[in-house]
CehA/McbA family metallohydrolase
Amino acid sequence: MTHDPMTPPQVERALREYGALLAAHGITWGEPPLGYVRMMPFLRFPPVAGRMAHGPDLDAAFRDALDGEVPRGLVVLRLTPDGRRLEHGPARPLLSPGAVPVVLLVDSALPGPVEVTAGGVPYAIAAGGARLLDVTTATTLTVDGEAVDLSGLTRPARAARLRLRAGFPCRWSVTSRDGQGWYPDGAPERRDNDDVPFFHGDDLVLAVPAEPVAIRVTRGMEYGVAETTVVPREGEETLVGLTPQRLYDAAARGWYGADLHVHLNWAGDLVAAPAEAAAAQHGEDLHVLNLVAGNVAGDRVYDLEALRHWAGRDLPWSDAGHVARMGVEYRNDLFGHVHVFGIAAPPAVCHTGFGADADWPPNGTVCGDLREPRAVLGYAHPFHGPVSSPEDVVAGGARNCSGRALVVDAALGLVDGMEVLHFSDLSATPGTAEVYRRLLGAGNRLAALAGTDAMLSFTRQDTVSSPPGWERVYARVDGPLGADSFAEAVRRGRTFATTGPWLELTVDGLGPGETLNLDGGETVTVRARTVGPEVEHLEIRTADGVTAEGPGPEITVSLTVDAPAYVVAVARGGAHPRSPGGRAYAHTSPVHLDVRGRHVARPEDVRWCLRWLDLLDELIRSRARLHTRAQLRDHLDLVEKARAVYESRL
C-alpha cells in the first residue's frame, strides 16, 4: 500500500494495521472462524459455494465442492496410485523473469498419508485428503521427497506497451489469447463475476506481450461496450483510442444511480485505500456510492476509522455528478443486515450475535437508533433464493444473513427499503422480489433498493470482486444531486432497481413513490417503458399479480380501481455484457393507489406476514442467543407490536 493523498492520518494508520493482518494471516486477515475465505476467489455463488460444507476440514470440502473443476488462477496437484499430475490453465506469459504467486490445491487419492514439502515446510496430508497452499513458481515443491516441476505454469513473452485513451474515466479490460489479463503498474489485478479482468481510469499505459490482445472498454450500465484487437510491436507504445457510447443518460432526466452497499475493506487479498473507491466510482460513472463500515466475524469493524472521520460529509473525490459517503452495515446473521446511507455519526452498535455476544438488542431497536433525519436504512441481501412461503426463510434458523426481522421492521416503519437486487439472489424470478411484493401488498411502504456488496479488498471473488454499481438503485431527485436530496428521494420511494435496463412506470402521469387518491371505480392508465437491448419481457403488476405483459419496449393497460392497490413494473432479459450479474432485471418501487384514504392491505398478504411472525416468535425462543429474560422480552415485544399493526390492516 502506498500513501494516498486523499487518506487522512487516522485512516492511513488503520490501513497499515490491515496490511499487517494480511501479511500475518493471508486472505482471512485472522478473522474467526472464516477459514473458507481462503477459498472465496474460486467459489462461484451459489452453485459451487452452495455445495461446500463448512466443516472442520475446509480444504477437503473445497476440493469436493469443485467436483473436478479447476477455476482460473488455481493449480491442482493430483496424487493418485497411478502417479501425479498438475492441472491448470494456460501458461502465464512473463514479460520479464520472476516468480509468480500460485494458489495450489493438493488433492490426494492415495490410500495412505503423504508428505508434501513447499519451500522447505512439510505438510502431512491424510489418505484421501487435500491441502490448500500459497506458493510461487520458484517454490521448491516435493511429494515424499520427489520434486514437482512447476516450470509449465509460465512462459516467456516479448514485451510491448499500450496507451489506452477514452476521454473520460472508464472500465478497461485487456486480455491476451490465453485469457491472461494485463494491468497498468500498481493497479490491482481484478476480475469480475464473468472472470473478465478489469481496471479503471483514462490515458493509461500498461505493458503487454507483443502478440494479439483484446481491448474492451465500458463505463457502467448507462454505456455500451466498445471492443478492438491489436497486435502491439515489441518495444513500442501503441495508442488505442476507444470510447463507449451512451445508451441512456439518467442524470439528464433527474435520476441518479447508487450502489448502497460497498465495502472498502472486508478481509481479502489486498488492502484497499480510498483512491480505489474513487477510481471505481468515476470509472463506472456511479452517481452515488455508499462505502459501509462493517465487521466480518469478530468485534473489529473495518473502515470504522474512515466513518469516524468522514461521517456526515462527502468523501474527497465527490463532485457535482458523483457523491460518495461513508455509511455502515449493521450485521446480525440470524435476523438480517441493514445498510445505512447518509449517517451523521458512527452508531453505538454496529453488530450483534457474533462470537459470544447476544442477539440483542433486536434489529428494530438498532434501526430505531440509526434513524437520523437524513439517513436512509435498507435491508441488505435479505433473501438468497426462491421464497414461496415464510417457512422457506424463517424455519430452520441457519445464520445465513437472511432478513428475518424485515417483516417486523417494515410494519413498524423502522426501515425505508430493501435490496430487491443483490449479489445472492440472481435467479430469473428472485425470491427477494416475491417477498417485497408481499410486504407491499400487506400495506408496507418500502423503496426498491440495490446493493452489490462489492468488496474492494478482493480482486477475484465472483460478484464480490465485480465493480461497484453493477446493480444500482436509481432515484428521482429534486434539484441538484447531493447526499440529502438523494436520501430524500429514496425515503419517498421514487426508485427502481436494475442490473442495466432503464425502467419507467407511470399511473396517470405519476411515478414510483407517488400516491393517486381515488374515490373508487375510476379507470387509470398505466404505462411501463424500458430502454436496453437485453430486455426480453416487460410486465405491469399489482398485488393480485401480472396485469399486463409483453416484449416491450412499452406496454400500456387501463385499470379500474375499486379497492386500494399498488402498481409496479418489472423488466427481464438474458445475460448482457454491461453487468457481471448474469441477467437483465429491473423492478420499480410502487405507485400507490389509495381509495378514500385507505392504503392497500390485501388479506392474503397480511396473513402471510402474520404467519411469518408466528415462525419468527418460535425462532427467537428456540435459536436466538439471548442472555436474560429481558432480552427475550425485548424481541417478543417488537414482534407483538408488528402483529398488532398487521391485524389492524385486516
Remarks:
- The mean pLDDT is 94.
- Residues 1-24+257-498 form a domain with the TIM Barrel fold (CATH 3.20.20.140).
